[in-house]
Design a protein that fits this description.
Blueprint (H helix, E strand, L loop, with lengths): L6 H5 L9 H16 L9 E6 L2 E7 L2 H4 L6 H13 L7 E7 L3 H9 L4 E6 L24 E4 L3 H15 L1
Parallel strand pairs: 3-4, 4-5
Antiparallel strand pairs: 1-2, 1-3
The structure holds zinc ion.
Zinc ion binds next to helix 5.
C-alpha cells in the first residue's frame, strides 16, 4: 500500500475507539468491583471515580448486602469521592461504571455536578443516559455530565449475563 492516505481515509476517524489505556485500566478496576458484588449475591455492577488521575472511590452494588434500595455502586462511589475530596461538587471527577446508570444514579450524578461519565454496557430496560431516558444531556438542567459509552462493553455485559444465568 502507498504511504499517502486517500482523501476518504483522511476524513475517516483515526480510530473508532475514543478511549486510552488509562481508561481501560480504570474500567478494569470497575469490573473487579462488579465481580466483588457476587460474593453477596448482588447484581454485579461496579463504579470507580478518578480525580486528577487518582482513584478516589471504588464501589459495587450493595443493595442486597445492605438491604438498601439506593445502595447502587454509583451512589456509594459518589458519596465516597465527596468524603475523600472534602466537597460534594465533583465537577473535576470522572466516573467509570460497568453498566449504564439508572434514573436514580444519573440524577445523583447531576446533583454531584459530576464532570464526566464513562460506562460499559447499555441497559435497555432501565438505562437513563441513552436507552430509556436521556437524563444527562437535558437542555433544562443547569449541569451537564459529559458521557462516553462502550468501554469494555462486552466484558461488562458478560459479568451481568453470567449472574442472571446462574440465578435461573
Ligand atoms: Zn442506579
Amino acid at each position: 500500500m502507498g504511504s499517502n492516505p486517500t482523501p476518504s481515509a483522511m476524513s475517516a476517524p483515526v480510530s473508532d475507539d475514543p478511549f486510552d489505556p488509562a481508561d481501560v485500566d480504570t474500567m478494569r478496576l470497575a469490573l473487579d468491583e462488579a465481580r466483588a458484588a457476587l460474593a453477596h449475591h448482588d447484581v454485579p455492577v461496579g463504579a470507580v471515580i478518578v480525580h486528577d488521575g487518582v482513584v478516589v472511590a471504588a464501589r459495587h452494588n450493595e443493595r442486597e448486602h445492605a438491604n438498601d434500595p439506593v445502595a447502587h455502586a454509583e451512589v456509594l462511589a459518589l458519596r465516597d469521592a465527596a468524603v475523600h475530596l472534602g466537597q460534594w461538587r465533583l465537577d473535576e471527577c470522572t466516573m467509570y461504571v460497568t453498566l449504564e446508570p439508572c434514573a436514580m444514579c444519573a440524577g445523583a450524578m447531576v446533583n454531584a455536578r459530576l464532570g464526566w461519565l464513562v460506562y460499559g454496557a447499555t441497559d435497555p430496560k432501565a438505562g437513563a443516559v441513552d436507552s430509556v431516558f436521556r437524563l444527562l444531556d437535558g437542555d433544562r438542567l443547569n449541569h451537564r455530565v459529559e458521557c462516553s459509552s462502550g468501554l469494555l462493553e462486552a466484558e461488562s455485559a458478560e459479568v451481568l449475563r453470567a449472574f442472571f444465568r446462574a440465578r435461573r
